[in-house]
Write a structure and sequence with these properties.
By secondary structure, the protein is an all-alpha fold. The chain has a single domain (2-300), classed as Farnesyl Diphosphate Synthase (Orthogonal Bundle), CATH 1.10.600.10. It contains 14 helices and two strands. A two-stranded antiparallel ribbon has the order 1-2. Helix 4 (71-92) packs antiparallel against helix 6 (115-137) and helix 9 crosses helix 10 (210-237). The longest helix is centred in the last third of the chain and has 28 residues, at 210-237. The two termini are 22 Å apart. It binds geranylgeranyl diphosphate.
């Protein structure tokens, strides 16, 4: 079972890498109208094509496949999710935010291209994501409404009531007194929203039923919060070389996290409950959710 999952994950990942490369402007683009400045395309490609687990696009493709949709039709939407995720990482690493030097095992975007160009590379990826999804929607006029719903799902979850809201409250909460309600809000929006987006966008592309959508939302929320708690644990106990980024940053920044508030054991226990709840929410899909089950099992044991 684990082998089948890993094999399928690699297939999705290879297809995503190919799609991302094709969607990015070439690095040699010249200083010319209607072409992307070479420096900008280099900075965008530098972070987007730097590896990464690709879990958000993989989740979208797996959801579309589980619901009987077309991988080809969904691919630009999957790629767009990775572009949005990468923009958020570039901006999160900036000196005005988490001020990190290392990401995906390489110097952060602003360390290589400077803060101004890094901001633009992030902005560029965000815009390119919507351009790719809208361009793709135009290719499927019989599914316009499904595509618009998928794009809306992503815009809302990446936006100012979703990931950006979570990041806003996260920044505001540094060095604040512990507050579980605030912490749950941060984890749900900063992290879980962008992991729920591929599930709900996939559901929208396939015209899923209300109960399927509910189950996927519950799965995404539980996976997302557990994933963030594990991330906070890895920031304390993880191997920086394996993670490709510095550890110990949360304590340094005075971040509100589960391990900081409930201790390592308390955080581990909460993560376990959430991973179990995630697995349970897949019941309505029966055997068809084999990949999602493998995904949860594999991610719950992750070391990077
Ligand atoms: C700047 C609007 C804005 C938002 C930033 C993504 C994010 C929000 C902050 C990054 C810091 C962080 C710990 C976020 C939680 C989500 C998370 C664990 C991101 C890392 O995602 P992975 O593990 O990374 O999927 P790879 O490199 O594998 O893609």
């Amino acid at each position: 079972m684990a082998e089948r999952y890993e094999y399928q994950y690699d297939i999705y990942k290879q297809r995503i890498e190919h799609a991302l490369d094709k969607l990015m402007p070439p690095e040699e683009a010249v200083f010319e109208d209607e072409k992307v400045p070479a420096l900008l395309s280099q900075a965008m490609r530098y972070s987007l094509l730097a590896g990464g687990k690709r879990i958000r696009p993989v989740l979208l493709l797996a959801t579309v496949e589980m619901l009987g949709g077309s991988i080809e039709e969904a691919m630009p939407v999957a790629a767009a999710l990775e572009m949005i995720h990468t923009y958020s990482l570039i901006h999160d690493d900036l000196p005005g935010m988490d001020d990190d030097d290392l990401r995906r095992g390489r110097p952060t975007n602003h360390k290589v291209y400077g803060v101004g160009q890094a901001i633009l590379a992030g902005d560029g990826l965000l815009n390119a994501a919507y351009e790719a999804m809208l361009q793709n929607a135009l290719l499927y006029p019989v599914h316009t409404s499904r595509h618009l719903k998928a794009i809306r799902e992503i815009a809302v979850r990446a936006g100012v009531t979703g990931m950006i809201a979570g990041q806003c409250i996260d920044l505001m909460s540094e060095h604040m007194d512990p507050d579980f309600e605030r912490l749950r809000y941060i984890d749900r929006h900063k992290t879980a929203d962008l992991l729920t987006a591929p599930l709900l966008a996939g559901a929208a592309l396939c015209g899923a039923t209300a109960s399927q959508i509910d189950a996927l939302r519950t799965f995404g929320t539980n996976v997302g919060i557990a994933f963030q708690i594990d991330d906070d644990l890895l920031d304390i106990e993880g191997d920086a070389a394996l993670l490709g980024k510095a550890t110990g940053m949360d304590a340094k920044m005075g971040k509100m996290t589960w391990p900081a508030m409930a201790g390592i054991e308390g955080a581990r226990a909460e993560s376990k409950v959430l991973w179990e709840a995630a697995e349970k929410s897949l019941e309505i899909f029966g055997d068809k959710a084999w990949f999602h089950r493998g995904f949860a099992a594999s991610l719950s044991r992750r070391k990077f």
